[in-house]
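Worked Example 4.2. Consider the chain below.
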Amino acid sequence: MSENVKESENKNTPEIEKIDILNLIAAFWNGFRKLWILMLVIVIICTLRSYFSTSFSYTPQYVASATVSVTTPGGSYNNIESAQEMAAVFPYILTSGVLEDVVKSDMGLDYLPGTISVEAEDGMNMLTISVSSDDPQMAYDTLTSVIENYPQVAEYIFGATNLQILDETGIPSDTQKEVVIRGSYKRGALQGIVICAVILCLYVFMKRTVTSKEQLKKRINLHDLGSLPDVKTKKRKNAAYNDLTILNERIAPAYEEAVRRLRIRVMRETEKNGGGVIMVTSSVPGEGKTTIAVNLALAIARQGKSVILADCDPRNPSVAGIMHNDGKHPGIGAVLRNKVSLHHALTDPGIPDVNLRVMFGGHSNTEDAALLGSRKMEELIDEMRGQADYVILDTAPAELLADASLLAKYVDSVLYVIRCDYTKIPKIRAGIEALTMRNVNIMGYVFNGDINLKMSRYGYGYGYGYGYGYGKYSHYGRYGRYGSYSRYGKKLKDTGKTEDESGRIIKE
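Applying the procedure from the previous section yields the following structure tokens:
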């Protein structure tokens, strides 16, 4: 009995996640690549701040000094037990309040215009007397007064003594300014580096994103359908050249090849499942799901299959933007409200040699989202299923909204898009759980923007920005149109409900 209890406890005890040193180093390197401009600016600002602060607040200090020997009137110091005693006592005399009073009286001042310091040579009767002041003449005059008036103070202790000047600086100049200014550069730069190190650590340990498929495989239990390489953006006047689609002749061959491999794997999984209705979604906006949905539809259509691509994200219809279609088209809401038929809603994009029809999203309309889980939607999907070999549905993010989970119950499988070094692990898991709770068949995930893939040297880069239309959640604001649930509907804080007046589900 006790053994069973122990086994149960062991199963329920969460396993402590081991730190992968190589992945941690990679995370810091990726963080540095993303933040290096910011960190450079911080170091420069800190350096300049330290320089200007030091320059404006700097008060010059002038140091007048003299090296002297102490002797008795007879030229020796035999009446003193040892030179060591003299070295110990002379500095005390020179910095005593008695001598300071004498010097002030001699100079006719109410205050001592400098700071007296003394260094004694061990085992010798030699002293180095220094006076520092913000006035070079005052520093020299004070030093002179100290040397002249020292004997009358010292005679109370040693008797008659003399100070013989061996070396002196004369009227001093400020030699410390360059040293102080140079030190301000170093202090400022060091402060900036420390701040950057803190920012980088916070970025790495708080971001909790995945930068490789190896990390992803350890954290989620989904089939790996492949990766799409990270493609850098080159903005060109011709908008068609900026497309991240396989229709763009200037796109990197490596990207087109990756899409082809994804198409092969998706078609293979679809044949296993026995259904061609595929929903493409992600956890949050900006992961490139719409771009992948368009490319997947194009790739399958190029194989001689009939394909319908439907924009099922009424809050942020993006398919038309990816395909550069500026025409006015009825969205999915118009079809679901029986304003237009499916036949009139489907558009031939005019791509040669492919059997592809597209249902563009029309204008943004949050009210249409309530219809995605309706019986009419199921009938619409069945109708599209009967007219094409494959039906590709582009939907809203699964973690952010309930739209995808409502729609998923009518599809055959789901393709989940995860962007490299973008989405936090908890959000990825939450999005997947939202679908699995509906007993949805998730065929697998595609790792988008994989920074670990090498691009072909013949390729040209035209990247995602941050996912065509979503930005770093771009015009969603803090999830802009989706959130703080903005135009979608206010969260009912007082009632604790998760539905608005129209019955639309609002996820926590």
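The chain has a mean pLDDT of 77. The longest helix spans residues 21-57. Compare this with Example 4.1 before moving on.
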